[in-house]
Amino acid sequence: MNAGEKQYDYIIAGGGTAGCVLAGRLTEDPSVRVLLLEAGRSDRHPFIHVPAGFAKLTSSKYDWGFSSVPQEHCNGRVIPLAQGKVIGGGGSINAQVFTRGAREDYDEWSLKYGCAGWSFEEIQKYFLRSEDNERLSAPHHGVGGPLAVSDPVNPHPLSKAFVQAGQEFGLPFNGDFNGANQFGVGLYQTTTKNARRCSAAVGYLAPARKRGNLTVRTNVTVSRVLLDGKRATGIELLTDHGVESFRASREVLIAAGAFGSPKILQLSGIGNPEDLKNANVPVEHSLPGVGRNLHDHCDLDVIYELNQYQSLDRLNLVRPATAAAGLEYAALRRGPLASTVVEAGAFSFGHANESIPDLQFHFLPAAGVEAGVAAVRPGYGCTLNSYSLRPESRGSVKIRSNDPTDMPLIDPNFLATEFDLESSIEGLRQSREIMAQSSIARHIKAEHLAGGMSVETKDDYVKFVRAYGRTSYHPVGTCAMGVGDDAVVSPDLKVVGIEGLRVVDSSVMPRIVSSNTQAPTVMIAEKAADLIRAEA
Length: 536
Description:
The chain has helices at residues 17-26, 46-49, 103-113, 120-130, 157-169, 200-208, 257-267, 273-278, 319-332, 418-434, 438-441, 458-468, 518-535; strands at residues 7-13, 34-37, 131-133, 147-149, 184-187, 192-193, 196-197, 214-217, 221-228, 231-239, 242-254, 270-271, 285-286, 298-306, 344-348, 359-364, 381-388, 396-398, 409-411, 444-448, 470-471, 501-503.
């Protein structure tokens, strides 16, 4: 099939993690014609594929450049919200941490939100099918799947010291955060293979691009879903050549993420009538939940200055160190560039009445790695961040106008509840206590809290959390799955009241999982592929 043809069986709007999985799975049937549309660029840049390169990508041409509206509960701050604008989406620019959450997360989807078929027992097979783990296997892991998962090739000494400090704090050592229990401290497994990133673009899409039944278009803007009454029939695009339309004989699949998917629905006249009216978009189908239920993990960072020149952030500035690291990586696939930078972490309890961990930590043997996070002298910094895993606060995504090129109005509504504030404070408190343990404290010269704040009293903690809380890059929920009045998609991911239209990405999560969100998004897309093929 050539790129000029205008009709396909399936059109996928969004070439991020979920879109790549869908394209990979659906084109396994040679009789099916698939069009994959991506607003961003290809994933060819070497920084994408070198694990440590993620530090250069969270504020770059591969990022959408989203930001929040002023945050009411965070001192009116406008918070940057990095999201991947590239083939592979967030999976092409993230730190590659591989965590899946707790089984209780998925059981709650099924029991509390009415998402039949999404209990952990029912979806675990999709985690296993997707995974190719270099060390672990059944019953908790898969081998031979498209998504490669591996251990750090040469963990930094500071990361090892953090794991020891976590044990001194009282956390048990955990060699598998995706096993029987999340609780504890250890080194993260990552979506890497042979010291190279394995995004969904690498694992799923790259093999599929060799098939003649897949067409991939990059640098295009989806302007709306084409509707014939209550049925989706195709997609309209804005391209360098003007407006183009493509028809889908079977289904349109929206996979543009928690910010992009509700935007596309709203531009198509599907959403809350009030939101559509404010943006001057005619109402085609009233669906009040579109763009609601936005939530994210609210991240807090503590930076530490080290006694010695030993951390990975020396690569940001010191050219001899960078050159040496490049040679080591090219020759041996080892050294600083083989590190994902986020090497170690932990899951802990912030509230005594919780049955599963409700705090997560990421340790970085570097400082100033991510855009907007403070740094110290290059080579002399490390970072520990924390967040509450199951926030109560809910926000929204709304289109600003009927112009598809306008950025949406994004309100994560961080820290809107007392529970979220208290949880964030407890995560920060535990971070500081872990870093005070002897195994890591012996490396530390000074603690650097953002703004030079002195944080001792409860009031100090409140002020710090509201002044410096930020995104963890885990937005979900804006096209929530369920059976209630606010549900946007049914448990089979079909948009309620519209035929031939599904949403497949992190936006369908009715509630966020207790972990990073890439692996769960892969799982969602794997299950979606089965649901779609069952009806073909």
